[in-house]
């Protein structure tokens, strides 16, 4: 069951009852271009956790993990799963603007400021995990514990690729704008077609529960049609702008992460090959974090969604580790 509320109603824990682990509320945070939406689990008086999804996904990527996690932790938690701009139920950015990684930490800080949080835990998958590492480096006093699922660093390109990549993104944006200007209609699908497309466009095997979870926020019904849907994500996300960095810059960011850190990697993702850039980043994190655990579990990039029982005990144990007061 979902209930829609504005976030201000949840600012005072004594005024809001704890939600059962299977119930959620919807929040909206005001931003200059519209709103950032969030799906919230747990007790507003509990330990705060910000959960952030991967690119072209949405807050429902944690739908199978969070209920199990709340049961295992055994104490009140308050988990705010955001839809990043242009994803899920959140507003898209203004026309003519590319979605850039470097703008996202500031978007998350807007949410944190409106929640009134001064100390919290951070849970991120893929893009959300990378954002977590950079958020902690930028705001070192805000995050108590950081949980990163299947992410460590960006794809490394030679520096001379930088101009080519930026030009390609700009050209793709102009091409998309021409299609929109020419009246190109966004494709629509029956529900079965949309679910099939969602399942087969990711490059990973998805469970039925995982597909339906992402579809719950990733599809929008076409007005006037009972069984036609479009994808709710902004088409500009297909060319989301990640930073072009070298290994020295990636290691520098890792060296600025001082909080307690849990990294969980899917074995089939092959994101920790010996001698890889990821290994250099992991070495820097191990050196500078106050505490670090790294687990490799059976599964691929979406293991948190497909097989949450493989991650939930690890995350719960990490959250229950003695810590300073929030």
From TrEMBL:
<dbReference type="InterPro" id="IPR029058">
    <property type="entry name" value="AB_hydrolase_fold"/>
</dbReference>
<keyword id="KW-0378">Hydrolase</keyword>
<feature type="domain" description="AB hydrolase-1">
    <location>
        <begin position="48"/>
        <end position="174"/>
    </location>
</feature>
<dbReference type="Pfam" id="PF00561">
    <property type="entry name" value="Abhydrolase_1"/>
</dbReference>
<dbReference type="GO" id="GO:0016020">
    <property type="term" value="C:membrane"/>
</dbReference>
<comment type="similarity">
    <text>Belongs to the AB hydrolase superfamily.</text>
</comment>
<dbReference type="InterPro" id="IPR050266">
    <property type="entry name" value="AB_hydrolase_sf"/>
</dbReference>
<protein>
    <recommendedName>
        <fullName>AB hydrolase-1 domain-containing protein</fullName>
    </recommendedName>
</protein>
<dbReference type="InterPro" id="IPR000073">
    <property type="entry name" value="AB_hydrolase_1"/>
</dbReference>
<dbReference type="GO" id="GO:0016787">
    <property type="term" value="F:hydrolase activity"/>
</dbReference>
């Amino acid at each position: 069951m979902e209930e829609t509320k504005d976030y201000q109603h949840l600012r005072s824990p004594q005024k809001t009852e704890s939600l059962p682990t299977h119930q959620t509320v919807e929040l909206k945070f005001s931003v200059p271009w519209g709103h950032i939406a969030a799906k919230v689990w747990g007790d507003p008086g509990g330990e705060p956790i910000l959960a952030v999804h991967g690119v072209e996904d949405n807050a429902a990527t944690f739908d199978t993990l969070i209920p199990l996690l709340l049961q295992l932790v055994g104490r009140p938690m308050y988990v705010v799963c955001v839809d990043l701009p242009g994803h899920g139920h959140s507003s898209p950015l203004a026309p003519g603007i590319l979605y850039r990684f470097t703008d996202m930490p500031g978007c998350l800080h807007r949410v944190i400021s409106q929640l009134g949080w001064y100390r919290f835990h951070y849970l991120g998958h893929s893009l959300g995990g990378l954002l977590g590492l950079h958020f902690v480096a930028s705001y070192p006093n805000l995050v108590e514990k950081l949980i990163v699922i299947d992410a460590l660093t960006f794809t490394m390109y030679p520096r001379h690729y930088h101009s080519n990549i930026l030009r390609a993104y700009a050209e793709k944006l102009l091409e998309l704008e021409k299609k929109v200007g020419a009246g190109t209609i966004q494709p629509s699908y029956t529900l079965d077609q949309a679910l099939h497309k969602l399942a087969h466009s990711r490059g990973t095997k998805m469970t039925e529960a995982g597909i339906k979870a992402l579809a719950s926020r990733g599809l929008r019904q076409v007005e006037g049609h009972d069984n036609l849907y479009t994808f709710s994500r902004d088409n500009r996300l297909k060319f989301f702008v990640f930073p072009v960095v070298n290994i020295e810059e990636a290691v520098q960011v890792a060296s600025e992460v001082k909080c307690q850190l849990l990294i969980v990697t899917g074995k089939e993702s092959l994101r920790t090959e010996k001698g890889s850039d990821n290994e250099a980043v992991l070495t820097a994190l191990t050196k500078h974090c106050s505490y670090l655990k790294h687990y490799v579990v059976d599964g691929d990039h979406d293991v948190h969604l497909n097989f949450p029982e493989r991650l939930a005990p690890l995350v719960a144990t990490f959250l229950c580790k003695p810590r300073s007061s929030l």
